[in-house]
Each structure stands twice: as structure tokens, then as C-alpha cells.
Amino acid sequence: MQDFTAAFRAALDLVFRMDADLMEIVGLSLLVSGAAVTLACVIGFPLGAALGAGRFAGRMPLLVLVNAAMGLPPVVVGLTLYLLLSRAGPLGPLDLLYTPTAMILAQTVLVTPIVAAITAQIVADLSEEYRDLFATMGMRRTAQAATLMWDGRFALTTAVLAGAGRALAEVGAVVIVGGNIDHVTRVMTTAIALETSRGALELALGLGLILLTLSLGINAALMGVRAAARRLSDG
């Protein structure tokens, strides 16, 4: 117990004095996850809007595929990207393996289905409410999707935050394609796993505290967005 208390105090000291190694790991984590969530939104929002408001051949199989992809095993995604990015793979000449870019790609693959599926559900629900209005106005599907996206912008924030939570907590895929290289590709989750296995609890606990704080912040933001959306709909 005394050893744990000492490690916890040392972890708090690392956090409060903003230890350089700790902040470097946190900064890279936020950079990788932020870039991945941004890319996932660029892909997932239009895809989700098309699935939610569109009526085209193959829509239901694609919707099922997107929803199923929400549960993709991270290690399988990491292994697939590893094979694609390795020297012998088709993308080997790009020399992306064991770089932050490869980690961003891995997280983007994992987060995009989440953003797309949530967006599709939100847009589909709103589409039912606006069906008669759209029919009266004779709006095209693209205009309908844009209108629904704007009207559901607060609800769509939940997709962004859910994706951010998934990205920050990811470890399996990023450790495979990133290699967990010190000062290059080491992020919070991979560093926690490594330092814990080494018995270096101070850094692991410090990173764990920051990761937990970010997770709580994301969940608090989700609750706030949902409350704001309810107030807006009631008003």
C-alpha cells in the first residue's frame, strides 16, 4: 500500500509540474486522435447523411455493414493496415509504417463507422419528421440531407464525442502500426501498457489520470449536448 501511495504521489507530481515526457505523450495522443476524428467526420457525416436520408439500391446492406463495422476488433484493423503498409505490402513505398500517420489511419478506420452510424440514425429520425414538408417543397435528396444535418447539428455532436472517446481509448491497432516507439509513436494507452509491464507506475498512473480526466470530460460534454438538444427541441 505504501508503494502504491508513493507511486500515486509521484504521478500527481508528474502531472502538476507538467513533466516533459508525459506532456509529449499526451500531446501526440491528442494530435493523433484529433486528426483521426476529423477525418472520420469528413467521411462519416456525408456517408451517414446519405444512408439516413437517401433511397438507393444497396442502402440497407451498406447500413448493416456500417453498423457492423462499429464493432471491428482493433487488432484486426491494425493487422490489416500493417500488411498494407509493410515493405511487402501495396502501400509499402509510402513508408508510413511506425509513424503517427499510420496510427491516424488506424483510428480513422475505427472511428468512421461510429460517426456514420450515429449520423445515419439521427438523420433518419429527423427525415420522418420532415417527410411531409419535404414532399410539399419538392426538395432534392441532397438538399434534404443538408437541411437535416443542419437541424440535427447539436445531436451530431454526440457522434464526434463518441468518436473521440473511441480514439483516445484505442490501443490494439495503434500499437501494431505505430510500434510504440519512444518519442515517435508512443501515445497514452500504449505508454500505460508498457510502463505498467515495466513496473514504472508513476508515469502509467500519471497518464491514466489524464486519460480518465479526458474521458470524464467527453462524457460530461455528451450529457451537456444532449440536454441542450432537448431544450432546443422543447423550445
From TrEMBL:
Single GO BP term: transmembrane transport
Protein origin, superkingdom: Bacteria
Gene Ontology CC terms, in alphabetical order: plasma membrane
UniProt membrane topology term: Multi-pass membrane protein
Cellular compartment(s): Cell membrane
Limits of the ABC transmembrane type-1 domain: 26-222
Key words of the record: Membrane, Transmembrane, Transmembrane helix
Annotated transmembrane regions: 25-50, 62-84, 104-124, 203-225
PANTHER family (UniProt xref): PERMEASE COMPONENT OF TUNGSTATE ABC TRANSPORTER
Protein name: Tungstate transport system permease protein
Organism (species): Pontivivens marinum
